[in-house]
Structure formats: C-alpha cells, structure tokens
Amino acid sequence: MNLSAEQREQLAEIGFIHLPQTLDGEQLERLRDHLEYLWEKEGENAGSENYMEANTRRLANLADKGDIFRPIYAHPYALEACKLVMGDDVRVSMLNARDALPNTGARQLWHCDTDDSGTPENGDYYACTAIWMIDDFTEANGATYLVPKTHLTGKVPKQVMEDRYAAHPDEIRATGRAGDLFIFNGHVWHAGGANESDASRRALLVHYMRKDHIPERGDRRQHLSAETVQTLTDKELTLLGYHDDYGMGS
Ligand SMILES: O=C(O)CCC(=O)C(=O)O
User: I want to staple 110 with a disulfide (CB 3.0 to 4.6 A). Which of 39, 133, 164, 186 is the partner?
Assistant: First the structure.
C-alpha cells in the first residue's frame, strides 16, 4: 500500500489527505458495536483518561481496549503519512473516540494538536492526526473544519486569532462517508464542527507524535495492561511507545 505522488504532494502543500472507503462495511459495523459497548460500560467516566468535553461522548486509551483497534492505529496509509510529516520516529500519542452529539451545536474552538508546544517555522513537524469516519461526515452533523496550509504559518490559532470560535475565511470541511480516512499534519488548524442534525457523527481520532515529543511517564496517554502487551507485536509495542525510556506499560 502506498500513497500516490499526488497524495504525498497534497499532504506537504495543503496539509491533509482524504482516503475514501479505507474501512469495509464489516469492520465498520464491528467498530460501531465495540464503541457502543465501551460507552455503555464506562458510563460517565468514558474519556476521563484524556478529555471530557461538553455535549460530546468521548473514549480514551483505546489501544488498551480491544484488538479491533490494532489495524486502525497501525494502518499502513496512516503510518506512511505520519512518516512523511515527521520522519520515522512515529508514536501513537492518543487513540480516542469522539461523538459530537446530535442537535447540540457544540462546535470546537480552532486549535492544533500541538497548541501547548507550538508550530515549527522550519518544517520540522512532529504531529499528525488520523480521523476515521465511523459515520458519514456532513456539514450538518459536524464534519471537521480545517484551514489548508496553516502548518506553513509557524503559528497556532491561539497566538493569532481573537475569537477561536469564529468562522475562518479559508476554512474547508472534511466531509466524507463512513469508512473514509482523513489524515492531516497535526499543525494544521482545525476544529470539530457543531452537530446540528439528528444524525450521529462518531469518529476515531489517532494522534501521532514524534518520539521526542511524547509526554513523559507522569503524563502518559496510553496505558497498556499486561494482558494487552502480551497480544501485541513488537512493531505495535514500539509504535505505542512501550519500548521507550518512559515506557507506556504498567
Ligand atoms: O472530531 C473532530 O472533528 C476533531 C476533533 C479534534 O480535533 C480534537 O478533539 O482535538
């Protein structure tokens, strides 16, 4: 599996690529069932390992919550895109699910996935994000907003925008169908849209970071149980940071 020359160029120039129908119908159904099972099981604690967000259901630490996520975080297209963005030392920083609840109108503020550490001006990027569409993404149900080429600005939105909830003149929407994969340079300005429809808008969000930018042990974002560690390949463990100095295991 290889990204085309056009996709590689697009990732470098505008900062994102859209890969239609990367999951098949059966995978999608299994993922939906498993996510709903976890939401039910975790109840009001769902997402608490990373973020809780108003009007939104979240789940976190999914690398430890089912084999079903292995082909997601280690997908060859996603890893190839990450390597193009940040070089070979790619790590999964967070693997979350996000469901912007119907008819809540809860739009996110503009951000980068590196808001705290900023955006390098010299192209030395260290973050990449994959959004797996578990439902169709439409303008009405909150398809992600992005501003093309903002990874080239050397700035994150909070450094330059007065109102981070305001529309941006150059914004586009990542609309698509359930099963599509949308990958962007993590320094691209983006925001989850408001779900103003009756339709659900579930997504898996895989945040990748370069090894030297992964939080230290005290702030680790994946936590792998001994049981999960046993089932994973060495390649997967490396990707999840298990072998790094600050290890992600128990
Ligand atoms: O769900 C989305 O469309 C984007 C979510 C996002 O950027 C985040 O939660 O950091």
Answer: 164
